[in-house]
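[recover] target loaded
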């Protein structure tokens, strides 16, 4: 039963991977923005020191709900919003592939902080891939104090729901789409 659920979830993640990066309807944009605001609040509750990254970083991407599923090989998919100097400038999606001993499924949230403008510009320029050396810091009390930028980025992750056994290698691939909608989208922290 659990194997079927994980396989179905993995297939769903792959199918969702074909969806557009930016939500096409206003309701979808509003839901994503609400999820982003909720994710930022959860990260802040789990580690108040993360605020220093919001204050000092040139920009950041928030992926409020990423699903990851695996049976040996795995995949993950999520959508988010990208901010430059506190203003929402576009959308991103993330696809992840892993290979190794993995079993289960989980939801997690991810924030990627970009130290300087060139770091954010590189992320926005074209499909962007994390190398195997870039890893996320679990958002727990005090983790942000010890965290630092690697290759111009600081990545924070917090698990939401699920159970996953994971000893795999993989990378994350991101796609950026600029904000074509003209409303004011300043982050409410």
């Amino acid at each position: 039963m659990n194997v079927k659920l994980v396989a179905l979830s993995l297939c769903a993640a792959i199918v969702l991977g074909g969806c557009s990066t930016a939500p096409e309807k206003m309701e979808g944009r509003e839901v994503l923005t609400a999820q982003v605001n909720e994710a930022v609040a959860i990260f802040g509750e789990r580690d108040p020191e993360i605020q220093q990254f919001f204050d000092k970083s040139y920009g950041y991407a928030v992926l409020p709900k990423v699903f990851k599923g695996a049976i040996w090989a795995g995949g993950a998919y999520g959508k988010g919003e990208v901010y430059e100097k506190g203003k929402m400038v576009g959308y991103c999606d993330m696809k992840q592939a892993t290979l190794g001993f993995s079993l289960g499924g989980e939801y997690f949230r991810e924030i990627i902080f970009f130290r300087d403008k060139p770091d954010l510009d590189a992320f926005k320029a074209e499909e962007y891939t994390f190398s195997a050396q870039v890893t996320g810091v679990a958002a727990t009390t005090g983790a942000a104090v010890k965290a630092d930028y690697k290759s111009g980025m600081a990545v924070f992750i917090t698990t939401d729901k699920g159970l996953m056994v994971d000893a795999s290698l993989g990378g994350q691939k991101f796609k950026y789409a600029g904000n074509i909608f003209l409303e004011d989208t300043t982050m409410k922290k």
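[recover] notes: The chain has five helices and five strands.
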